[in-house]
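Feature request, filed as a ticket because there's no other form

It would be nice if the structure record came with a short human-readable summary line next to the C-alpha cells. Right now we just get the raw output. Example of a typical job, pasted below so the devs can see what we mean:
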Amino acid sequence: MSGKIAQKIHMVDTKGQYLKIKDQVDAAVLEVIDSTWFVGGPVVKRFQDNLAKFLGVNYVIPCANGTDALQIALMTLGLKPGDEVIVPAFTYVATAEVIALLRLKPVMVDVDPDTFNVDPAVLESALTENTKAIVPVHLYGQCADMAPIMDFATKHNLYVIEDNAQAIGATYTFPDGRKQKAGTIGHIGCTSFYPSKNLGAYGDGGAMMCNDEKLAKELRMVANHGQSIRYYHDLVGCNSRLDAIQAAILDIKLKYLNDYSDARNAAANFYDKAFANNSNLQIPVRAKNSDHVFHQYTLRVKNGKRDELKKFLEASNIPSMIYYPVPLYKQKAYQEHWTTDKTLPATELLSEQVISLPIHTEMNEDILAHICETLNSFF
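Raw output as currently delivered:
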C-alpha cells in the first residue's frame, strides 16, 4: 500500500467506539437523566459491583478521577509529612504529584528499560527508615513485576498502592501460577476512567480497589468528606465522586473491555510484525509474567532520531506522542525532592527514545499498513 489514506488517523478514536454502542449508551444516559439521581445511587453501585466482579476484587470505591484515587489512597493510609514513598521516575506526573501534595517525599527510582516499569532490583537502595510505601505503575498497559515488589514490601512492612491508570484488565501471573488482575495485588489499586483510557468515560472518573473491608470503608469515607454517617466526620476527607451518568456509560463499556483489549492486541501484533526487522527500533517487550492491554504502543527509537521521526510522522498526518520526555526528577516542581546530581540511566534513555503510535479499538489494516509503511520509509 502507498500514498494517502482517506481516513483521518486518530491516536484514540472515541467517536468510532461510541458509534458501535451508541444505542446502549444513549439509553443508559437517558435512564439516569430520567431518574434525576445524578450523584451516587443505584447506577453507581451497579457499576462498582460489576467492576469488582470483573477484577476479582472484594471492593471498588469510585471517585472523581485517577489522581484523586491516588491521593485518597495515600490519605487513608495515615502517612505523616516527611514519610517517603518510592515511585518510578518514568511515569506521568500525577503519581508523584499526590505524594508531594500531601507533604510526603517522592523517592524516584529507575525502571526496567524493556518493560518501562519499576525495576524491583533498585528498591533496596531507595529504602530508608522513613520509607512507608511503594507506588508501582503499570505503564502503557503491562503489569509491573509485582511478586518481588510485594515480597520486598512485606519484608519491610510497606504499603503498596498500584497506579493502574493504564492497565485495567491486564493479568499478572505469580511464580506459583496464581493470577490476579492489575490493581488488585497491592493494598490499594487506583485507576482512571479518563476518556482515552482502555475503560474510558465520557468525562472524568476514577476508582480504588482493595480486598480489606476496613480499608475499603475508610477509602469510601475519605472520598466523602470523612463521613460514613451524614454530618458525622470521623476523618479528614475530600469530595471526590463518580457521577451516575459516567457510571452508566462505564457499565456498558465494561461489558466490552475484553474485546477492546483483543482489538488493541491485534493492532500491536500488526505493528510488531511490521517493525520486527527494523534495526532502528525496539518493539514493546512483552513480559513473561504479564499480559498486555496496550494502552499505548510504545517504540524505542535507537538511532537518536526520535524527534525527527515524530516531525516526519506529523508531516505525514500521522499522530504520535512522547510519554514522557522529561524524567520526574528534572521537572522544576520536583527539584527539591532530588538532592543528588546522579541520573537514572534507564529513565534518561527512555525519555530520549520512546514514541507512542496510534492504538485503539477501531483500527483497521489499511490504517495500520499506512502507518507502518510511512514510519519504515523514514529509515
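Something like this underneath would help us a lot:
The CA atoms of residues 170 and 182 lie 6 Å apart.
The domain at 17-109+117-254 is CATH 3.40.640.10 (Aspartate Aminotransferase; domain 2).
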